[in-house]
Design goal:
The chain is an all-alpha fold. It is built from 11 helices and 2 strands; from the N terminus they run αααααααααββαα.
């Protein structure tokens, strides 16, 4: 058992991460995974978590935190009739399969590989945010199977490797095929459920018995972080929301795009060290 001073430092650092993640998640209108993973990575480094498992732990813990928030969001959107349940039913196996495949890949991947994957996808998403145009379309309706099924698997894999709920990726997919953004956002909450629950299970199995994990971890899930971050993010997210209402949609897109580029650059620098 580590000294009580180290545990207190760990808890305080995570609480600070929750404040940052909650404000930024509220500001940019996303689930927080793209924010939590890099923040967790820095906090785990601060408290001396082994570099070999640091990124795995950040991704897995992020997915665990997304479970309750995505469930709450999904049922709220569903009451309003905004969710595309037909699409979710067609992805009932595709997206979880992708999330489980991601956990399997993570189990055999180095910390460097996971950071590189996160950085590359972050740059692509940042490009979409910075240069997005409403006129960008791949079709007037969602593709049929097997292409739609494959898209679900890909969204599950990429989201599972990044530790995100899939909102940014699914919003992009649905909007490129002519679906209204409010429906895409609502459906993304359901996609988050399909990703986070199997992802949570997968990262527990993938990290079972791994060395170098901090106290109160089960596989690549740290329960101290989960217990601290969820209430803190829910508490401070309205602050970010208030800030968001002072900016235009375009300003928020540019801000989030720049944030992702900074994160990608930070991981790129860490890979070069």
């Amino acid at each position: 058992m580590p000294p009580i001073e180290d545990l207190i430092l760990f808890a305080l650092a995570l609480a600070g991460a929750g404040v940052v993640a909650g404000i930024l998640a509220g500001l940019f209108g996303i689930g927080g995974g793209a924010i939590l993973v890099p923040v967790f990575y820095q906090v785990f480094a601060l408290v001396g978590v082994d570099e070999a498992v640091r990124m795995h732990l950040a991704v897995g813990t992020s997915l665990a935190i997304i479970v309750p928030t995505s469930l709450r969001s999904y049922f709220s959107h569903r009451k309003r009739g905004a969710v595309d349940d037909v699409l979710l039913k067609s992805w009932i196996t595709a997206v979880p399969l992708g999330a489980l495949l991601a956990a399997a890949v993570a189990a055999f991947s180095s910390s460097e590989a996971l950071r590189a994957i996160f950085a590359v996808i972050a740059v692509l998403v940042a490009f979409r945010m910075l240069f997005n145009r409403a006129s960008w379309r791949l079709g007037d309706d969602l593709p049929r199977n097997p292409f739609k099924y494959i898209a679900g698997v890909v969204i599950g894999v990429l989201s599972g490797l990044m530790g995100i709920g899939g909102g940014v990726l699914n919003n992009t997919f649905m909007s490129l095929y002519g679906r209204p953004m409010h429906q895409a956002v609502a459906t993304s909450a359901g996609v988050g459920v399909l990703i986070s629950i199997p992802g949570l299970i997968g990262y527990i199995i993938a990290g079972w018995g791994a060395s170098g994990l901090p106290p109160f971890s089960t596989g690549y899930i740290n329960w101290v972080a989960v217990a601290l971050i969820i209430p803190i993010t829910l508490l401070v997210a309205p602050v970010g929301v208030a800030l968001a209402h002072r900016a235009s949609k375009r300003q928020l897109e540019i801000g989030f795009g720049i944030f992702l580029l900074i994160v990608a650059a930070r991981f790129a620098i860490s890979l070069a060290e």
